[in-house]
Structure formats: structure tokens, C-alpha cells
Amino acid sequence: APGFSGLGVKMNQQVSTFRSRSNRGLSVDSSENYWSFRVSYNTMIPEELDAIESFLLGHNAKVNPFYITLPNYSRPKPESFAISLNGADLTVDSGVYAGDNTVLINTTNTKLVPGCFINLIDDADALHKSTYKVNRVETPSRYVGDEVPEGKLRLTLFPPVQRDFSGNVTARFLNPKFRVKQTSDLEYDFDRNNVASFGFSCEEILP
């Protein structure tokens, strides 16, 4: 496969702002938050393009969701934290209600820094397919507000958690997946050497 040459990431956050005559304002978040992406590929020969086109058309990707992983977000940072996972997921300490934006993760490694994406996987809820970005990491020695228990990390996520869960939930930091559907029409260009340029847009869609 030719691989990505470029990636655009957008967080779509629906906010309505109401203003008075004196310019006092009130902003209301509709809680309709989702990710969208613009994917560009390295130039490719027709056989490589055929493989991608066959998947998108054969899957009817504008109608049927599929999963993507983002190469530049495939591993959390720093690399020492990613290595310490040893290919495994971490567990969530306790249940969370939809709309909450913090979770406690069971780990003694406090080196994680904000910026990665994670999946919260609930075996009891096949509809929980959201992907979250870690915006704050609090440790037992570095926190704001309530203390963080020993052996835990408190992560602040965006968007807020989409569905309630009570336990037996894992947090996937390695190769998190986005459930998306294609939003752009299929379009590509060939140069004089029969080399193709191709890209497409997609957006997160939940079951």
C-alpha cells in the first residue's frame, strides 16, 4: 500500500451562541461532537489505486461504516509509555456516566502525556464505539482538585464519554480505531506517467 502522505483532522463541535444587545453572550454546546478527516495518499501506480478503490466501492463506504487508524496517533507518547504497555490494553478503574469527561486508569506508569487517542471498550455494550482524545493527565503526585489514588492515572477526555459503563472496561492506547463513513465522492487524477493522486474525506459515525 502507498501509505498516507497527508492527514487533516477536525473536531466538529456544535455550539450555539446567543447575544444580547449589549453583547453579553451565552454559548450552549449541543453535545454533537465528532471527528472528521481528510486523507491524502502518496502517489501510486494503478494497481495500488485499484486495491483502495475496490475496498471503498465494494464496501459502499459512503453508506456502510468502516474503521481507520491514524499512523501518527497509533502510539501514545512518550515512547517509553507505549513500550510499557507490551501490546496490551489497560483497565478502567470504575464506572462512568455519559457526559463525564474524566476516567481513572489502572497503571503505575505516570509518564503518559496528553495528545493521544484512546478507545474505551465495553464488552457489555457493543454500541460504545467512540474515540476520545486525552487532553489532561493527572497522577498521584500531580493533580488539580481531588487527589488521584496510587496506581491510577486520571485522564480528561474530549469529547465527553458517550455512554454509561459500570465496569469491565478497557482503555486501548495502541492503534485506536475510528468508526467512520466516507463523505467525499471518489475522485483521482493520473499524470502523464500513469501515476495516480488520490485522497478522500470521512467522518466519525456511531452505531
The largest sheet, given as strand count, sense and whether it forms a barrel, is: 6 strands, antiparallel
Sheet-strand content, in percent, reads: 35-45%
N-to-C order of helices and strands:
EEHEHEEEEEEEEE
Category by helix and strand content: mainly beta
Low-confidence stretches: none
Taking all Cα atoms into account, the compactness measure Rg is: 20 Å
Helicity range: under 10%
Amino-to-carboxy terminus distance: 29 Å
What is the 3D shape? globular
Mean pLDDT, rounded to whole units? 92
Can you give a write-up of this model?
The protein is mainly β and 207 residues long. It is 10% helix and 42% strand. Strands 1, 2, 3, 10, 11 and 12 form a six-stranded antiparallel sheet that branches. The chain has a six-stranded antiparallel beta barrel with strand order 4-5-8-7-6-9. Strand 11 (188-190) and strand 12 (196-204) form a beta hairpin. It is globular. It starts with a strand and ends with a strand.
